[in-house]
Design brief:
This protein has about 130 residues and is an alpha/beta fold. About 40% of the residues lie in helices and about 20% in strands. The protein has a 5-stranded mixed sheet with strand order 1-3-2-4-5. The protein starts with a strand and ends in a 17-residue tail after the last helix.
């Protein structure tokens, strides 16, 4: 499955998807974004149950600002409508696969309970994305 383009208009329906949604924030002029886009495309072929969506930060500046994107590329991951990871920088294929595996392993009931109590998103509590090296 290829990446779908995400806009402000399609954000709500995309994030309402059950399961994992990976948002890739980038721009046409950003060389690392082009390289990372190829990693995302390969991951989309391997992880057909995951929704991969790209956000053109030049066209969707409000969306990028809403997610606090200050560096490109930036990856934001949701599971069952809950943001569970946000990080700037490119990942290798292995790093992205490890991130997806970590997100799959989350106990979402515990995540929701922790967040309802004012806790941090899982990224801030230990879900990390390695560069795959």
């Amino acid at each position: 499955m290829a990446q779908r383009a995400l806009t402000r208009d399609s954000l709500e329906s995309t994030l309402a998807t059950e399961g994992i949604v990976v948002l890739d924030f980038g721009a046409r002029w950003c060389r690392p974004c082009h390289l990372f886009s190829a990693v995302i495309d390969r991951a989309a072929e391997r992880h057909r149950d995951v929704v991969f969506a790209s956000v053109d930060t030049d066209a969707e500046q409000e969306l990028a600002a809403a997610f606090g994107v200050t560096s490109l590329p930036t990856v934001v991951v949701f599971r069952d409508g809950v943001m569970v990871f946000s990080g700037a920088g490119s990942l290798t294929g292995r790093g992205l696969t490890e991130l997806i595996a970590s997100v799959r392993d989350l106990d979402m009931a515990a995540v929701r309970e922790r967040m309802a109590a004012g806790g941090k998103i899982p990224t801030e509590e230990g879900i990390t994305a390695s560069d795959g090296t």
